[in-house]
Amino acid sequence: GQERMARCWTLVPLLLGLSSAIYSPSNLQWYFHHWLNAGNDSSLSHQEFGQFLRNTDDRVSQAQVDGLSERIKYVISRFDTDESGSIEWSEYLAKVGDPIEAGIQQVHLSLGLDYSKMVVMWVTRDQSSSVVEYGTSSSQYSSSANGTMTTYDVGLFGWKGWIHTVVLDDLSPSTQYFYKCGSSDYYWSSQYSFMTPPSAPSSDVEYSFAILGDQGTHIPMGYAVTDQIANDHAKKPFNMIVHAGDIAYAGTGSEWEIEEIWDVWEDQVEKIASQVPYMFAVGNHEHYYNYTAYRTRFNMPSTFNLKFWYSVNYGNCHFIFISTEHSYSPGSPQHLWLQQDLQDAVENRAKIPWIIMVGHRPMYCSDKDEWNQHSPGAPFQLEIEPLMSKYGVDLYLGGHMHMYERTYPVVNGTVMATGSNYVNPGATVHVTQGTGGVFTDGEDDFVQPQPSWSASRDSHWGYARLNVKGKTLTYTFMSEWYNVAEDYFQITKTL
Do 18 and 30 meet the contact criterion of CB atoms below 8 Å apart? Predict the structure, then answer.
């Protein structure tokens, strides 16, 4: 999200000031003792944590740090197993985990251009073949696919590694596949599995999607929201993860990016991203070096525009991923593409009734910061909402502002329905889900009085579960704290 207080604290446990491109416990120790820990002692205190926030962004005032005091205490408590009130190095390493220096790592999936394809990606530190063996029975791999290997070298200290991409083709719909990736001349990964999308929607099947934005890794809570999603997936599986931008927070707040932060984030999410296709809308924190890390590390199903905007069908939902970081003015390539995609989606609405748009920045959000950019009359609303209204977009999902907010069905600032159960509402419901792990904004950061179009606001960390079955859509914001529902709404179509 934004470039101000509590926006870049997700500069994660990592090797600042080191030339090595492979992070290790010794690198983490340097980071812990010399960057996080101003006193250079064996533990990270509350005061040092606050100073770290000041050091990270010179625009941060002590008053702003003081306002985050309770949240800093809470973050420390999640590491502080001996209840000393500070984070010791051993506690820190236990939470971060021992980094992997060799072998197969950062395994993640994304959807292909249709249901019969799945993209598998992973990272190795050494050059090796790119192979995925897969089949429909555990440990019995009847098929094999070869792919490509690439690398890049940007960032404060560069990056040394190899990114592998393999597209699995001719997959059967609604089928579980087991797979491993790597090669016989290097290493093989553990076995993972995934479920392919259906070939056609079914009104009798419930499809489930995890929604989040603005995550990062450790310091403060990105890892915890990842664990929350993975644990919930084990209980009731997701079909797809939707991440509305601002992914790893690898930037330093200046023109530099630390590439190994991407490694930490991808290691963090492997537990879920290796099982469920993980789809992104690009955010402003991915912009470094012309989005090089984002474009190289992920493969979204687009054959144009460097993967910044695209659409996919899953079940009875049509998801449109736009880029709020590139021009969307009428006549721009993105605006022309969006209009055509929406027109095609409406023509197919008898089969796929739900149209869901995903972008990083919100159109309606009552956070004080950047208020003039996400309220009625702002360029985003004036230039994109007419298309949403014309083609009947049901739901818009965004992030950027570090809070949760749901609007009533709204168009041009006019509320079309109230409550939390909407039947043929005739306007789009907007959700800001910027709660994926960065420090969230509190009540003092919200516009007062609450705008008439704002239905619910919250500052807890967490994600949302979007369930769609037939012509009923439900959305539940799950707080990471005790994993309880903080907000809920339902949209029903009867027409």
Answer: yes
